[in-house]
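hey can u check if this looks right to u? its 500 residues, i copy pasted from the old doc so theres a chance i mangled smth
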Amino acid sequence: MSALATDTAGSAPREETQPGLLERLGDRLNPLVVKEVRQGVRSRIFWVSFGLMLLACFIISMVAYVSTRDDGFSTQGQAFFFAFYVCLGMVHFFIIPYSAYRSLAREREDETWVLLILTGLGPRRILRGKVASFMVQAGLYASAVGPFLLFSYYLNGIDLPSILLVLGLGASWLFFLTVVAVCAATLADGRIGRAMVNLVLLGTLGLALLYGLIAAFALSEQGFRSIVRDDDFAIATSAFLWAMLSYGWLLFETAAARLSLATENYTHGPRLAFTLQTLISGVLLLGLWLTDVRSTGNATGASMLGCLHLAVIGIFVATDVDGQARALRAATRPWSLFRPGAVRGFRLVLLLLLGWTALCLVFFSMSTKSDASEAHLLTVLAAPAYAIFFLSLPLLVGRLPRSDRLAAPAVVRVLFFALVGLAGALLPLLALLFDQRADDPLVNLLNPFIGLDNFSDYDYSLNESKMNLGLLACVWVVATLAAFSADRALVEREHRAHAS
C-alpha cells in the first residue's frame, strides 16, 4: 500500500467521464456549420445589420407606445406588425441570401474550395453546411425580433395564427432564396461571368424582398380566419410551399453536381430530385382531383403547365456533356438513366413527359364533360408533342455538325429558347406574307403558342373543334421523328467520346 501510494504520489487519478448530450451532438454536427457560424457572427456585416435592425424595432416600438398610450382600445397591431416584419425581411430576404452567395463565391475566388474538398466532407455536405449555417444566423435575427412581433399582437388588430402563418411562409421563402443564392455562386468561373451573376442576383433578391413584403402585408391584412375559409387560397398556399421546397431541393442538388468531380456519379442527385418532384407532384395533384373532381379545362391546364416545366428543366438535364467516366460506363441497369450522359438525360425527360401525359389523361377521364371536351382532349395530347419536338430540335441541331462548340451545353440551351421564340414569332409572320390569317392552323401547326391555342379553340356556333385528330397526328409524327433523330445523334456522339 505504501509503495502504491509512493508511485502515485503527485498525480491524482483521473476518472473517465461520459460526454454530455451537447458534446455528442457537436461531434455529429457538420463542422462547417460551426466554422461558418463563428465566422459569420464575428463579421462586421452581422453586427451592423443586427444593431440597425434592433434600433429600428426599438424606435417603432416607442412610436407604438406613444400612439396607443391614450387610446382605450387600440387596433393598430397589424400596422406595427408589418413595420417590425419589414425590419426582419430586409435581413432575411436580402442580406442572408447575399451573404450565403458571397461566402461560397469567396471560397472559389480565393481558391480555398480545394482545401474544403480535401477535408473529405464532399460537395453536398459542404453546401449543406453553408445553407445550415446561414439558417442559424437567420434564427438569431428572428429571435431578436420575436419579442417585438409578439408585442404587436397585444396592440390588437392581428391574431396570433396570422403572425405564425406569415412567419412560416417567410421562413420557407428565406430557405428558398438562400438555396438559390448558393446555387448562383456555382454558375460562373470567370471574372466577367461572376460579375454578371452578382448583378443578376442583386436584382433578383431586390424583387424577392419586394414580393415577400407584399405577401406578408396581404396575409396580415386579411387575417387568418378569412383566409382559411377560402379553399382556393389553401390550395395555392400548399402549392407555393411545395414549389419552394421541391425547387430548392432540385437547385441544391444541381449546385452539388456542378462542384463534383467528373469521375463521380454527379447527375444522380439532380435527376433523382427531378424525377421525385414530378412523381410527387402527380400524386398530390391526383389526391386533390379525387377530393374535388374538376372540369376538363383544369386537366388541360395541368398538362400544359407540367409539359412546360418538364421541357424547361429537361433541356438542362438533356444537355449534359457527352460520355462519362470509365468507372461509370459498365452499367446498363434500369437506373442508369440517373448516370452522366446527355442521351440518358434525354431519355429520362421523355419518360417523364409520357408519364405526365398519361396522368393528365386520367384527370381528363375523371372530369365532368362539356361541349368543348374534345378540344380539351386535343390540347392534353398536343402539349407533350410540342414539348418533345422543341426539346429534341436544339439537341439535333447542335449535335449534327461535328463541332464541339455547337454541341456545348450552354449553346444548346440558348438554341432551345431561340428556336421556341423564332417559331412563335416567324410562323405568324409567314402566314401574313401568304395572305392568310396570323393564327392559320396549318402554318402555325408547329407554333408552340398559337398551335396550342388553336387546339384548345372550340367553335360553339359550328359545334366542333378548330383542329382535328389528323393535325394532332401530324404534330406527333414530327415530334417522334425529331426525338428519334436526336437520340441517335446523342448515341453517336457518346460513342465518339468513349472512343477518343
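Residues 1-17 have pLDDT under 50 and may be disordered.
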